[in-house]
Amino acid sequence: MKRLVRSFGFAFKGLRYATKTQPNFQIHLAAGTTAVALGLCLKISADEWLWVMACIAIVLITELLNTSLETLTDLVSPTYHEKAGHTKDVGAAAVVIAALFAIITGAIIFLPKIINLFWHAA
Ligand SMILES: Nc1ncnc2c1ncn2[C@@H]1O[C@H](COP(=O)(O)OP(=O)(O)OP(=O)(O)O)[C@@H](O)[C@H]1O
């Protein structure tokens, strides 16, 4: 049990580090918070909540793994190396794919509801 609590402590340390030092992680956190606020305002269904939560988790997880990869790359290869560049580029590509998936899912869920709202307000 003590080991589990210690592991959680390290995990929160990592989360704090990413939140404090990574502007991209801060942007993804803000986007996730906005999606949750929109979900509450637009009263999305349980199924839609599952998609929204999955998207938020996938984007934050890929961003955290990318940060981890970048940090390790900077440690192992502080000077220019083609493979270090590939490592960072592939990590960044994973984040872009996750973010695109989240944007498309968000558009499918929220756009019709937002359009409907304006349609009825007009
Ligand atoms: N050691 C390196 N060797 C070769 N290319 C590198 C190296 N470090 C970075 N690069 C190239 O520069 C790009 C930007 O890297 P940089 O370290 O500036 O930002 P990042 O760590 O990818 O992202 P962030 O701005 O979120 O910290 C990388 O995607 C890679 O193409």
TrEMBL record:
A divalent metal cation binds at residue 70. ATP binds at residues 3, 70, 88-89. The keyword DNA repair does not apply. GO terms for biological process: phospholipid biosynthetic process. Pfam families: DAGK_prokar. It is a multi-pass membrane protein. GO terms for cellular component: plasma membrane. InterPro entries: DAGK, DAGK_sf, UDPK. Substrate binds at residues 3, 63. The active site is at 63 (proton acceptor). The keyword Secreted does not apply. Mn(2+), Zn(2+), Cd(2+) and Co(2+) support activity to lesser extents. This is Diacylglycerol kinase family protein.
